[in-house]
Each structure stands twice: as C-alpha cells, then as structure tokens.
Amino acid sequence: MRDLKTYLFVVLVVSTLWFGALAGLLIEINRFFPDALIFYFFNYSYCRKKG
C-alpha cells in the first residue's frame, strides 16, 4: 500500500510539472504568434524553401 501511495504522489507531481510546462509553452507561442492557425516553424516544407 505504501508503494501505491508513493506512485500516486510521484504521478501527481510529474503530471503537474508537465502540464504546467505545456501551458507555459502554449502561452509563449500564442504571445509571439497571436491567432495563428499554422505555425511555420513546425512546417518542414516552409523551412526547406527558405534555405
């Protein structure tokens, strides 16, 4: 039972950190590219054409 409590605590902490980092990343992307439907830095064909 103690191992289960430890596992649940670790999952809670790791998931909180993960979703907090993900929310921060999405907020920063939305700050630099407001109302963007397509992010060009994720598009391989756009990056290939520039070089």
From TrEMBL:
GO terms for cellular component: photosystem I. The chain crosses the membrane at residues 6-27. It is a single-pass membrane protein. One of its GO terms (biological process) is photosynthesis. Signal peptide: none annotated. It is found in: Membrane. The keyword Transcription does not apply. InterPro entries: PSI_PsaJ, PSI_PsaJ_sf. May help in the organization of the PsaE and PsaF subunits. PANTHER family: PHOTOSYSTEM I REACTION CENTER SUBUNIT IX, PTHR36082. This is Photosystem I reaction center subunit IX. It comes from Arachis hypogaea (Peanut).
